[in-house]
Amino acid sequence: MDREQLYRLDLNLLLAFDALMAECSVTRAAERMSVGQPAMSASLSRLRRFFDDPLLVREDRSLVPTTRALQLIEPLRDALDLVESTIRSGRRFDPGADHRQFTLMASDYVLLILLGPLLAELEVEAPNLRFTVRPIAADFGEQVSRSQLDLLIFPDELVPEDLQASSEKLFTDRLVCAVDRDHPEIGERITEEQFRTLPYVSFAGTSLRTISELRFRELGIDRPIEIGTQSFVIQPFMLRGTRLMALLHERLGRYFAERAGIRLLDPPFTIGTMTESMFWSPRAETDPAHRWLRNRVARAAAALQP
Q1: How many Å is the Cα radius of gyration of the chain?
Q2: Which class is 175-272 in CATH?
Q3: What is the average pLDDT score of the chain?
């Protein structure tokens, strides 16, 4: 392909291609780009002519990418990311005036302890910024590498070694046992036997391994889960009036101890601490707005540390 052919392809068509591949729907791609469906259909027609390929074909009642389209997705997204980061790196960022949408991924524990208070501050400090916080998904690494996330906040110990991302450690926490404040069987401390045999409630919201599972494996403990929850935050409220035990992040446990009527106890084993870190695509490294966001998250995390 020579430069004269490239002159026929404008940047908006590449943005349309990215939206179409992400949504596999002309209607949803049009909504994503805030254009009408006829305009998106016209863009798809132009893309098909340019690449001499249908790009999206109907399979049953859905549209699916062709082999050629699948080959194009990654390099074209990389090119768009590079263009975007190049343009943004040369701009100044004014949080009090600029408009920007940020997408973060974090657990509800991190949202409650770290991001919730920070976002409340930013509502005043940066009133034109908009934030979306997604729950942790199994494909978080792919979303970071494709710049579909601005920030991932996740335990450092659970991130795969081959994750292609920049990172910064934010804060540490430890795991503690939590039981009903008036638990009939537990005194001043929890014994090893009680730890192993009391019915156990734990987070089981994704297929991903949790920090408690990692620590159990390190200790050689096989701890079955009697009740699995879709949320870290709901666990303290499952304990009142039961024989259940949970292993909670200490910050989360202290936040809810009084309201949930629970007691926090040291585990009968030495369990390692955990470190929450933030991860982002290296392409965003020099983006002034992204750098400002990272600094604000890091400052909020530093305030959590004793």
Answers
A1: 24
A2: alpha beta
A3: 90
